[in-house]
Amino acid sequence: MKKREYHETTVVDIITEAQVGRVPFYRNFNEKDDVLRYYITSVTDDWLSQTEEYYFTLMKESLAPYIVWLFEHR
């Protein structure tokens, strides 16, 4: 999506960039929207796991640094 708008991106663009064929793509995804859903889910899951660990570490000190960290997370 850095190269072009999402609605302009095709499955061919995705498989070319990922250097995979159509068969592996369609084995894992039905359409390009599934790729985006998968990415968002994995980034969110990763962030939540880091958040939970950091939260429990900071609870012993103060909640303020945890809240600051949440807003600074990228």
What does this structure look like?
The protein is an all-alpha fold and 74 residues long. 72% of the residues lie in helices and 0% in strands. The protein contains four helices and no strands.
H and E order: HHHH
Number of strands: 0
Compute the number of helices.
4
Radius of gyration: 18 Å
Shape: elongated
Helix content: over 70%
- Sheet bearing the most strands, described? none
Unreliable runs: none
Whole-number average pLDDT?
Answer: 82
Strand % is under 5%
Cα end-to-end separation: 18 Å
Condensed summary:
The chain has 74 residues and is mostly helical. Helix content is 72%, strand content 0%.
State the main characteristics.
4 helices, 72% helix, elongated, single chain, mainly alpha, 74 residues
Write the layout of secondary structure elements.
Layout: H1 11-18, H2 22-28, H3 32-59, H4 63-72
